[in-house]
Design goal:
It is built from eleven helices and 29 strands. Strand 12 and strand 13 form a beta hairpin. The two termini are 28 Å apart. Keywords: Signal. Pfam families: GSDH (PF07995). This is HIPL1 protein-like.
Length: 683
């Protein structure tokens, strides 16, 4: 049984690996966003943004001339070379999963994801070009003889089938392939049913900023509040009528002695290392007061490196410049015990003012690096233009390597780092030496709640709080500049006439505008980022990006149409509370079944290991539940949702049950493989 189980688990993991891939939004091969070149490209002509500048365009033209091909094959080869400039080049070349010199050539009947769905480009390329030499072409690197002067495509790959097995592929729901033309999408494709509303149940009355699922995959989550307390809590099954049981006397970790809590200051982020189950490492991002805690001391973000003198700054809310700091600390636990002091100080930076310092931390799901969101430092309009200063970490998304336990003294000295971390070698500074090495993206005002899509890790969305008129959600990419303080939303930011702020936009060559935004109306004034909904609980919400406004108490849903295009539309989604909610969502004088829940301030969102999404509000914790519990209609609910009695047990396994659990898993996997065999072979 054990050996059969091992084989079954291996085959199932292989099958899942082959079945799943990611669909990318517009993205270049170096994972940066497409841009509008300062000088027009003349060889590879695209409308709008591209992934090649004029010099790269000239290099592709030189490469094309060196091949010395003529006739109809020349058109095919030119289009293939120019695919590197396509705004979707990263997906055509599958850069997140493999290393290719040739894009995936369409070679089968593809779905309607692309408008040129019936083009078998691989077969056509073979028919026209199989007799030309692979020398000086992208095919040379995969030719067995290295592509000598006499090798042709048909010499190396003996048939069209052999050639297309290597370079071909299909366009489906999870990828795109190259048709010989710029990638385009069929906007008329049918989409999933739109949600008629969101049904909520209230699970608790406390106010929290962070909810992180336990890395063991169980139904436990970590909750943290702004004053500095972290709890480990078991989440009850949906519809069970149970509430979150939070034991104030049994904290997972108490940081209230280190954390300075006030308005926008406090414990702002928690994150668990990707190998937490093996190494027990977790991290907390918080603010501290150096007057009250001597260990709260670091370099001021306002310093001579950026021509800023903290002594010339006015006090803010009674605090001196850089009295408060942003800190990332590392802690250790063996699963139940937490070492009560920090293991290592990862990052410390003095804050010039008391607002706009983000504070969230996340580990990248694919690269394993720590992302740190930092605002512009405060004050109206970012008067010092910190967000656009490449030598400042204010107004930036940072990307740090905390995977090495050994202190990298050389890197700290070379780069004048702000703590005990290393720099990922592919951070944007490798291409722009003017950037501080920690910077992944810039030009944000106050990023408040970011997340990676669990199904498409390249979709890294951050909500960025606006100034006077607009709130926005940005798609964060390597080296991206999101415009602040020259732009607010999609429009130039116009400071008041009495302001000393420059409103010139000439300094930004290629600002990246938000994928979703809304203006200040009906009480809206501060965006709160959320998640792509990936739970089966409400299938009509599946794939929708959920976000909120702090003050308005409303939820927005962002839909990408067509999927993979990077084009989003957003709208307000009505909220209702389930009549059988464990805790009533509204006041005693209002009917929770007919009135929208009184959320108060929507501080943040949370997610558990079941991908269910939670609203963390000033009035409590709310979970998104099955639409039918609020009499909302979703045509997909009965086919994809399970009632509470049939939901799997996600409680943490005990050591005594591990053997039985493994046998049960093996039985399920073997049955799963048998069914797949029947579908693939018999049918």
């Amino acid at each position: 049984m054990d050996s059969l189980c091992s084989i079954a688990l291996f085959l199932s993991s292989l099958l899942l690996f082959l079945a799943k891939s990611s669909l990318s939004h517009p993205l270049c091969n170096d994972l940066t966003a497409p841009f509008n070149p300062q000088q027009r490209v003349t060889f590879c002509q695209f409308n709008g943004s591209v992934c090649c500048n004029s010099l790269e365009d000239l290099e592709l033209q030189r490469q094309f001339k060196a091949v010395n091909v003529s006739g109809s094959c020349s058109l095919f080869l030119k289009s293939l070379l120019c695919s590197k400039c396509d705004p979707f080049a990263a997906e055509l070349y599958r850069v997140e999963s493999e290393s290719r010199q040739v894009p995936v050539l369409c070679n089968s009947t593809v779905s309607s994801t692309q408008s040129l769905a019936n083009v078998d480009f691989c077969a056509r390329f073979w028919n026209e070009c199989h007799n030309f030499s692979v020398t000086n072409t992208p095919f040379a690197s995969q030719a067995g003889d290295g592509g000598n002067n006499t090798s042709t495509i048909s010499d190396t790959w003996k048939s069209r089938n052999d050639f297309c097995k290597i370079f071909g592929g299909a366009s489906d729901e999870s990828s795109v392939c190259f048709t010989g033309q710029a990638v385009s999408f069929n906007s008329s494709k049918a989409t999933s049913p739109s949600p008629s509303g969101i049904c909520l149940e209230k699970l608790g009355n406390g106010s929290y900023l962070n909810m992180v699922p336990h890395p063991d995959g169980s139904n436990r989550v970590f909750l943290s509040d702004q004053p500095g307390k972290i709890y480990l809590v078991t989440v009850p099954p949906e519809g069970s009528g149970e509430v979150l049981k939070i034991d104030e006397t049994n904290l997972f970790l108490d940081l209230t002695g280190e954390v300075h809590f006030d308005a926008e200051l406090g414990l702002l982020g928690i994150a668990f290392h990707p190998d937490f189950l093996k190494n027990g490492r977790f991290f907390a991002s918080f603010n501290c007061d150096k007057v009250k805690w001597p260990e709260c001391s670091g370099k001021c973000a306002c310093n001579s490196d950026i021509d800023c003198d903290p002594e010339k700054l006015d006090s803010d809310n009674g605090a001196n410049p850089c009295q408060y700091h942003s800190v990332i600390s590392e802690f250790f636990t063996n699963g139940t015990y937490v070492r009560p002091v920090e293991v290592r100080r990862i990052f410390t930076m003095g804050l010039p003012l008391t607002t706009h310092h983000g504070g969230q931390i996340l580990f990248g799901p694919k690269d394993g690096y720590l992302y740190f969101m930092m605002g512009d430092g405060g004050s109206k309009g970012d008067p010092h233009n910190f967000a656009q200063n490449k030598r400042s970490l204010l107004g930036k998304i940072m990307r740090l390597d905390v995977n090495n336990n050994v202190l990298d003294t050389k890197a700290i000295s070379k780069f004048q780092l702000w703590g005990n971390y290393s720099i990922p070698k592919d951070n944007p500074f490798s291409q722009d030496k003017n950037l501080l090495p920690e910077i992944w993206a810039m030009g944000v005002r106050n990023p408040w709640r970011c997340s990676f899509d669990s199904e498409r890790p390249s979709y890294f969305l951050c909500a960025d709080v606006g100034e006077d008129k607009y709130e926005e959600v940005d798609m964060i990419t390597k080296g991206g500049n999101y415009g602040w303080h020259y732009y607010e939303g999609t429009l130039p930011f116009n400071p008041s006439t009495s302001s000393k702020i420059s409103n010139s936009t000439a300094k930004i060559a290629n600002p990246i505008f938000p994928v979703m935004w809304y203006n200040h109306s009906e009480g809206s004034a501060s965006v709160t980022g959320g998640y792509f909904y990936r739970s089966s609980t409400d299938p009509c919400l599946y794939g929708t990006y959920l976000f909120a406004d702090l003050y308005a108490g409303v939820i927005y849903g962002g839909t990408e149409t067509p999927v993979g295009s990077g084009n989003f539309t957003s709208s307000h989604i009505p909220l209702q509370c389930a009549s059988d909610s464990p805790i009533p969502c509204s006041s005693e004088t209002e009917s929770s079944a007919t009135s929208p829940p009184l959320l108060g301030f929507v501080f943040s969102f949370g997610q558990d290991n079941n991908k269910d999404v939670y609203l963390l509000a000033s009035t409590g914790i709310y979970r998104i539940v099955r639409p039918s519990r609020c009499n909302l209609h979703c045509s997909l609910e009965n086919t994809t949702s399970l009632p509470p009695s049939q939901q799997p047990d996600r409680s943490p396994p005990s050591p005594s049950s591990s053997k039985r659990l493994l046998n049960n898993i093996c039985t399920l996997v073997i049955n799963f493989l048998a069914n797949w065999y029947f579908i693939l072979v018999v049918m």
